[in-house]
Protein 1
Amino acid sequence: MKNLILEMEAYAKEKNVPIMEKDGIAFLMKYIKAHNVKNVLEIGSAIGYSAILMASSSPDVKVTTIERDEINYMECLKNVKKCSFEQKVNVVFQDALDLNLAEGTLFDLIFIDAAKGQYMKFFEKYKYFLAPHGAIITDNLKFHGYVGKSEKIESKNLRQLVSKIENYIDFLKTNEEFDTQFYDVGDGLSVSVRKNEQ
Ligand code: SAH
Ligand code: MG
């Protein structure tokens, strides 16, 4: 397991796959244990780094993770097999915005870590699959320090992407259904819970 994690970190570095930062994944694993999370939905598997570590945080945690990129999906499957987590990690090869989960499927934790420009869409689509006491955690809210400085960014594509993350942060701050806490951990994380469940 330890070796596999190191291997995945090396692969991610070499191929520029944006896996979670160490303190970010540590935060998630701690959250899973502290809140007795059993079922996790992850949007954006990449090579399975965060899915495998979340699944390893306690014996009865199961993770469903969605990936639309075939190369990452294949690599993720390979890594899940290597640590014999086939029963703990279910990898779904599809665009998360096209996937239809069975009605009534509920997750204690939904972790959003896919295309940064689509965060609001993921949130609005998947909140219906969140258990009443559950939380939606979102990664990369700092986006390498660019968030909050979008007007100063010269590249148009980057500026638009960063401004979408800024809009998502506003959406969370002003949300009527969910209360959100922001954490300066890793590349910036948020934890959103339903207002009536506090
Ligand atoms: N959670 C991973 C990192 C994910 S990187 C970890 O920390 O280990 C983001 C991944 O999301 C990429 O592999 C990308 O292909 C995938 N992705 C982006 N948009 C997506 C979408 N709409 N549906 C499914 N996967 C998506
Ligand atoms: Mg991320």
Note: The first helix runs from residue 2 to 15.
Protein 2
Amino acid sequence: MNITWHETSKQFHLYNDRISYVLYVQPNGELGQLYYGKRIHDKKDFRYVVQHQWKALTSYFDMDNAFSLELNLQEYPSFGSGDYDAEAFCLVEENGSRISNFIYQEHRIYEGKAELPGLPATYGTAKEVMTLEVTLKDAVSGALLILSYSIFDRTSVIARHAEFRNVGEQHLLLDRALSACLDLPDADYDWMQFSGSWGRERFPVIRKIGTGTIAIESRRGHSSQNANPFVILKRKETSEIQGEAIGFSFVYSGNFLAQAQKNTDGRLRIVMGIHPETFSWPLAPGESFVTPEVLIGRSEEGLSGLSRIFHHLYNDHLVRGYWQNRPRPILLNNWEATCMDFTQERILDIAKKGKEAGVELFVLDDGWFGARDDDRRGLGDWVENPKKLPQGMKGLAEKVNEMGLKFGFWIEPEMVNEDSDLYRAHPDWILSVPGRKSSLGRWQLVLDFSKPEVVEYIYDMLYRVIKDAPISYIKWDMNRSISECFSIGKDPAHQGEVYHRYILGVYDLYERLRTAFPEILFESCSSGGGRFDAGMLYYAPQAWCSDNTDGEDRCLIQYGTSFGYPISSIGAHVSAVPNQQTGRAVPIRMRGNVAMFGAFGYELDLNEISDDEFEIVKEQIAFVKEHRMLLQYGDLYRLRSPFEKAQAAWISVSGDRKEALLAVHTMRATVNHLPERLKLAGLDPECLYQLGENSYYGDELMEVGLPMKDACLPGYRIDQDDSSVVLYLKAQA
Ligand code: GLA
């Protein structure tokens, strides 16, 4: 890893063993790009790639009529002075001008990477990451722009963000402040996004890039089920195991925009950042604004290769503290078993059976506080309901601990019901426009987390419940999208800040709780997977993936989620059948096999299943305990997409390639069909792997393939509806 500066050509080259990123100061003083891609030799001057020719209708500069911004790759473009594509930012001056010319002033190259104040961000030591900060100045407005680039040593990822500082005398307004722009000289890529809805989160969608613009966005106040702040550019020929793929991940949990634009000269521009339509930020003299971070990763080993880059990056450089790279506890959650209708006795019954099965952590879900007997009331009153918890949270947690289980519980700190003591006491603490009705979502209103006093109050309430009880885990939910986003009492000029300040408030509360209770494992949730983003992983190392726990649908949801997010982060539970969402009765074997590639658990009353099923549950738990690190932290290769055939397959391989777990799940069987061969991936071609009674070389398994028939699959059949196997492969010594 290195960052070089070539004074004569005014060029920076960021590189490690895999990638190169070359930037330079353009003839007009703004920052341009010369190359992004596979690692190339360092060289003093790459400016031969600059388009330097007159072209009709382009705007040019008086010193050089053959140089136009429009024809060249830009780093952080503005609109209105010669570049006509999507701009990265817009700074408005007091006179209404939206034009900026940020000119290179100086730069700083250092080992390591600075934190982003109040925001989630990747981190690394001086040996693991290097940073370039380029300072540019707009002479007329007096603003400074600092563009920051960090390159990691051992992975092909560049982290970027921008900072605006108003060091002049004017009152400025940031009307758009995206985090990054990447221009590419050709647009011969497909765009992949991960979109969906409640119960079917993060389904991969491939869109062709043609001349014009395509985008994915959220304006719901959370990253959302509908859109995910992770997109991929892939070459047409890129498969799961080979070919170029570039991924863009936004380390942020609020409104976002990710957009690709191909102009008529064939240049492709990707921009990503806070959604500009729900954002504006006044910058008074002396003030500054820091954008969240965008991570740009590049693989030549296909889509699975790109996924592994992000998986390792998040596990090693985003998840922090006690839970970093730790095995995730096997949990039992009562939600699907009881909803809000429970007594302490029932909870203890469920927990006891969980302990018998081998579960490690019991999680008490919604309904333990205030008058919370249904979803119309109680939210916001974080005080134990004495009828349900006669000895409080502490009493229940201690009883569960006595059984030999850890204990955790559910909260939804950002929300309030109208029928709650909190709302009655502070009706002005919600996001709402005076004089207008506020829309409800699940009978709840959104607390105004842009107000520090609201965050403070909720922190105090939660701190009181947590501090005396032995709490190991917290599930933090957010069960509606934001509407009527207006902060009561804030002056009109600052209302455009509210969506972003809301998220900053969420991050602040997370950070305070994490600091006070560093060993608590946080799991984020938003009506299932509505906040599955890299920003959340900085605070909560795992996320509830979906409220849809059907074994078949989970194949799709978890498969789609794995493109951008590590298995260790994917909350996945076995629930009862018929499934509450789909009515399907997927056998317990397959439900378990799918869920074990995740932060594994159960979400049902194990007292209510048959003895045979209970034996299978015990086996599953024992299996997960034995192979947990390989399941949750292995190198993942997706082998067969459930979006193409009614069968999913993937394999998780240990870092030394001596062990692997292969999963095959058949959702719909094809009758009277010859078994196909499945080519495995990621194995050591030279190693002889034991698989049941048989042994195979790695190259055999990867080149010949494993026939999907009983004789080759020790254990169970996969030729029937909802049949599934997880097979352990071990290299012979
Ligand atoms: C959301 C979550 C569920 C559960 C309920 C409780 O829907 O996604 O897992 O916690 O809230 O109300």
Note: The radius of gyration is 27 Å.
